[in-house]
Every structure is written in C-alpha cells, then in structure tokens.
Amino acid sequence: MTSTRQNLFRAGLTLAGAAVLGAAALVAPAHATPTSAQSTTAACSMNPGSVTAAGSHASSIVTAATPPTKKDQPAVAGVFQPGKARITSMYTNEPNISGADVAGFVIQGDSLYWHTYWRTGAGGIDPSVPNAFQRIGGGWTNFVGLETSSWEDSSRARHSAYGLRSDGTLFRWDTRAPAAWRAKGSAAGFSAVKSMALISKTATYDTFLANTRSGALYTIRIPATSPMKPVVTKVRASGWGSLDKLIANKCGQYGTLLLAIDKETKSGFLYAVGHANGASTVINSLGKTTGRYPDAVNFRWGPVWFLDPLNGD
C-alpha cells in the first residue's frame, strides 16, 4: 500500500443523528417533476461503481448530457466472493506506476473490512499485491448504510465514517488508521431514511442528502463537535420515495450532480442540485440516464481525499 493511501484512510467514521425525519405523502416520482435549470451542469460527470453478482468491481461514467449517458467501463473480476459484499463506502482509485491503488470499506456478513488491492493497467488484479481484507470488527449485520469523509489542511485533520443501522440509529466513529476506530457518539431518529449521499465536507461539518421511504428529501448536516447534534433541513416534501440509492459528486463551484437509482426498474435518474438551501434549493431533473443499474451494491468511485472537494452545502 502506498504512503498516500495510508494517509488517506486514517479514515474516521462519524455517525450522527438527531431529529426524526418526518413522513410526507408520496406523490409522483421526483424524476417526473423537473425544476429550474442549473447552467453549470453540461460538463459535469461522475463515476458510479457497483459490485456484481459474480463479485466483480464494476464502474461507469455518467455524464450530464442530453439525455444523460451512462458508459460502462471494464469490470475487475474476482475482487469479491460472489454474493459476499453487502454494503460498501465510497472506493478510491489512485493511479500508481502499474495501474491504480484501490481502497475502501466493505461489509461482508456481520463484519466490516478495510479492503485494498492494486489494479493493473489491463484492468485485472495485480498478482504481486494481495487482494486484502483487513477485518475491523463485527456487529454489522443490521447496518444498511456506510460512508466515509476525510478533510485535512496543514494544521487540522478530520477523518470520519458514518453508518446507519436498520433501527434508525446513526453512529459516528473517528479513526487514525483503518483498524483503529473510536466511537464518537450515536443518535436515534433516522428510521425513515432510505439512502444518504455525502454532498459536502469541511473542517467543521459533513452534510448528507437523504431521501425517506415516504418520499421526502432532506439535508443532514453533522457538525464535527461532540456530542453529535445533526441539523436536519427539509429540501422537498415528496417525490423521492421510489429511489433506492443516492450517489453524489461535485458539479460546479457549489453544486452537486446527483444520481438516483431505482432498483426495482434498474434505472438511474440524474439531477443537478444547487447549493443546499432548504426548500429553496434548486433541483434540475436531467432525466433518465442511458444504460441499466442491475447490481445490488452501489457506491461512488472517487479520487484521494485531497482531490475530492465536496461543497454542496
């Protein structure tokens, strides 16, 4: 593992929560009701990833074209045992001499693992470097969401990870190394959440965009201070309940490109989201992307943290 990668995932997990996300009446799906446009969208793109039924690591490029397009990339075979990976955080893909250094967290069965491997230039696993799963701990059977966030400058560092349990409890951990997690609090009240996507990370807080089963859309800003006191703000009252997985990427200086996956139809819908501002947040529906999303496990491919600014809030 490169030194850059070791520094990258001194990752800290931070789970926060407070304030129950209220129910809202479900109306037409969000992708059926576009709102005002965001002019910076045209050049924006993102890299959704997935774990296939066979255990391959898949990737694609989704671009905010008209209509939005999904271009599948060659998958890396043999990364996971078939059907074993259940939930992952974002994965980083850092170029190295032979190809790329890949790293992320994955829940397999009841355990959480720090997972690393090197990908060759031809797209396979580099046989000279182990496809390694470092077990962090057990007790993850009932978790339904996992994400990481890292922020650092010359004087401060904050590496966090967030996990949502099926009973609606959000947990937060901090870690200086992948296997040295420290619990940093928890809060109940998030049982309505269906999916959460990280849209902003700063020295003092992280912000997620979350949809609920009843169709509402919220931002959840989680201050870095303790005790955890998330600030929950409604963005839309309805229209987002049919969407099962949100994946976000920076778009423009203060915006977000948001991919929403409907697992029942295996379809993806793309949105340009302006800087988060409660109900005044601009959301432009760009339409259904080309291609399909057939895999059960979805995540975002990203660069190393210092090349990954997210400032949607």
Which topology does CATH recognise? Neuraminidase
Shape: globular
Quickly give the CATH architecture: 6 Propeller
**CATH level 1 class label:** Mainly Beta
Q: What radius of gyration results from the CA coordinates? A: 18 Å
Structural class based on helices, strands and sheet pairing: mainly beta
Largest beta-sheet characterization: 9 strands, mixed
Content of β-strand: over 45%
Low-confidence sequence ranges: 1-41
Residue share in helix = under 10%
The H-and-E topology, N to C, reads as: HEEEEEEEEEEEEEEEEEEEEE
Helix count, per DSSP? 1
What average pLDDT do the residues reach?
86
Q: How many structural units, i.e. domains?
A: 1
Number of strands: 21
Alpha carbon gap, first and last residue: 33 Å
Walkthrough of the structure:
It is a single chain. The chain has one helix at 3-8, and strands at 45-46, 48-51, 57-63, 69-76, 85-95, 99-108, 111-120, 132-138, 143-152, 157-165, 170-175, 181-187, 193-201, 205-212, 217-223, 231-236, 245-251, 255-262, 267-273, 283-288, 297-302. It has 313 residues and is mainly β. The protein has one domain: Neuraminidase. Strands 1, 2, 3, 4, 5, 6, 7, 8 and 21 form a nine-stranded mixed β-sheet that branches. The chain has a four-stranded antiparallel β-sheet with strand order 9-10-11-12, with no helix packed on it. Strands 13-14-15-16 form a four-stranded antiparallel β-sheet, with no helix packed on it. The longest helix is centred in the N-terminal third of the chain and has 6 residues, at 3-8.
